[in-house]
C-alpha cells in the first residue's frame, strides 16, 4: 500500500510517500480501507518531534480516518466487512489502509461523507469535550472562540450555539471572520484590541468561557477580560508562544484556567467519549453541525498541507485522499 512515512523527526518536507506492507489488525483492532484521512495541527508537530508524544521512527502520521471495514481482529464485535466507519488512533492514518482500535471506531450515519466523518472525530470531538465537560458551558453565557475559522474553531462556534451561548468569534482576517459568522457566531472581531472589544460586546462583564487554541498575546488578553466565575480553556498554542500566566489574576478576578487534552479524555473516560460521539453524530444527522471542508488533497501533498495548517493559513477541515 501507499503511505506517508516519517523516517526521523525532521522538517515537514522530509515526509515521503512510500510503499509499505498492508497492516493486519490485531486483537481488538479494525483494518480500514481509507477513504479520507484527516489532517490535524498535532500531526505537523508530531513529525518534527515537537509534540507531547514521540513515537519510534519510522512511522506513518495521521490520527483519524474514514472508510470501509476491510478486516476485523480477534474479539471485535459489532462491525462487518464493508461497514462505512470513522476511527481514530495515535498514528497510521496517512495511508491506503489503517489499523484502528475497535473501541475508537464508529459507524458513520447515512449520508455522512468521509471528510465530514474525519472532522467530527478530532476537531468536533475536542470542541465538544472542551465546552461540555471542561467548561460546563451554560445557556445564556458568553463564549469567546479564538481561531474561529479553523476546524476546531468552527466546531466550537456551532456547538456553543447548540448549547445556548452567545458566541463571539475571533479570527485574523475579514475572510476568516466571515466564515466564523457564517458558522453561527453572533459577533466576530479581530485580535487587535481584544480586551476592549470583549468588554464592549459584553457590557463590561467579560467572557464566561474562552476557547483558546492560540496562546501567546491572545491568552494574555483573555486573562484580563474574563468574567467572574469564568473558565479560560487552554487547548493549544497555534500562535507559537506558550504564555506565562500571572496567577494573581485568577485570584482577584475569580476565574479558572482549565486544561483540555482530548486524547487523555478518550483514554481515561471511554464511555463518556462514546456518548459524546453519539451526540455529535445525532447533531450531524439533524443538520445542527456541519463541518467546513476546505479541501481534499492526494496523499503525496501531505507535507504542503501540513505547512499550511501549522502556518495558520488553513480554514475549516482538510483531508488527504489515498
Automatic annotation (TrEMBL):
Q: Which organism is it from?
A: Rhodalgimonas zhirmunskyi
**Domain of life (superkingdom):** Bacteria
Record domain Enoyl reductase (ER): where: 10-320
> Mind telling me which CDD domains this protein's record contains?
QOR1
Q: Which SMART domains does its entry note?
A: PKS_ER (SM00829)
Pfam families per record: ADH_N, ADH_zinc_N
What InterPro entries does the record point to?
ADH-like_C (IPR013149), ADH-like_N (IPR013154), ER (IPR020843), GroES-like_sf (IPR011032), NAD(P)-bd_dom_sf (IPR036291), Zn-ADH-like_protein (IPR051397)
UniProt-listed SUPFAM superfamilies:
GroES-like, NAD(P)-binding Rossmann-fold domains
Taxonomic lineage of this organism? Bacteria, Pseudomonadati, Pseudomonadota, Alphaproteobacteria, Rhodobacterales
Record GO terms (molecular function): oxidoreductase activity
Q: What is this protein called?
A: NADPH:quinone oxidoreductase family protein
